[in-house]
Amino acid sequence: DRDSCVDKSRCQKYGPYGQCTDCCKKAGHTGGTCIYFKCKCGAESGR
Question: List the disulfide bonds.
Answer without folding.
Answer: 5-23, 11-34, 20-39, 24-41
